[in-house]
Amino acid sequence: MVRNIFGAAASKTYRCPGCMQDIRPGVAHVVAWPADGYGDESDRRHWHTGCWRARDRRAPGVERSRNAPRYG
């Protein structure tokens, strides 16, 4: 299931699983959760709209700390 959240309704900061960046309050975004009925609120994920649209074209992301080397 997918739902669009308008900027005025976004009141908390979330972490986008597509880019691992923050979605700040006031930014429109997408909320997605399993449609099978087995999930609960902890299964919802908040995505940037662009990240949601590009999710099938992206390679799996690796979350690194700020001090980790980019290559190697």
Question: What report would you give on this structure?
Answer:
With 72 residues, the protein is mainly β. It contains one helix and five strands. The strands form two sheets. A three-stranded antiparallel beta sheet has the order 1-4-5. β2 and β3 form a beta hairpin. It starts with a strand and ends in a 19-residue tail after the last helix. The mean pLDDT is 83.
What are the salient characteristics of this protein?
single chain, about 70 residues, mainly beta, 3-stranded antiparallel β-sheet, two-stranded antiparallel ribbon, 5 strands, globular
Please give the structural blueprint.
Layout: E1 2-5, E2 14-15, E3 22-23, E4 29-32, E5 45-47, H1 49-53
Antiparallel strand pairs: 1-4, 2-3, 4-5
Distance between the termini: 38 Å
- Strand order within the widest beta sheet: 1-4-5
Gyration radius (Cα, Å) is 14 Å
Report the strand count. Answer: 5
Q: What order do the helices and strands follow?
A: EEEEEH
* Class computed from helices, strands and strand pairing: mainly beta
Largest sheet: 3 strands, antiparallel
Tell me, what's the shape?
A: globular
Report low-confidence residues grouped into runs of 5 or more.
none
State the helix count. Answer: 1
Overall pLDDT metric? 83
Percent strand equals 15-25%
Could you estimate the helical fraction of the residues in percent? under 10%
